[in-house]
Amino acid sequence: MKLITAVIKPFKLDDLREALQEIGVQGMTVTEVRGFGRQKGHTELYRGAEYVVDFLPKTKVEIAVDDSLMDLAIETISQAAKTDKVGDGKIFVTTLDEVVRIRTGETGASAV
Description:
This protein is of the alpha+beta class. It has a single domain, classed as Alpha-Beta Plaits (2-Layer Sandwich), CATH 3.30.70. The protein is built from 2 helices and 6 strands. The longest helix has 12 residues, at 70-81. The N and C termini lie close together (9 Å).
């Protein structure tokens, strides 16, 4: 089992959700986050005063998938979240040692 964490632009979330549903991903956790990378921040003007926005709004999506679905899920996320502009985001993959469904006690892939 793998945990795929993707940090994407917020307006790409619906596209990503639909694309992941089409390949059989049954659930995801979504968090609104803020951060920066190479994109850095930017300067905005508010009521005549300039201020720097260091942390940009992003959306963090976490999905747990079976190893056999990992490559397809990564490709799907890459295509659905891509805008060809700086700040499209990142995908992180970590190994899950164990998954347990609280309600039934199921473990492993059947718990997802």
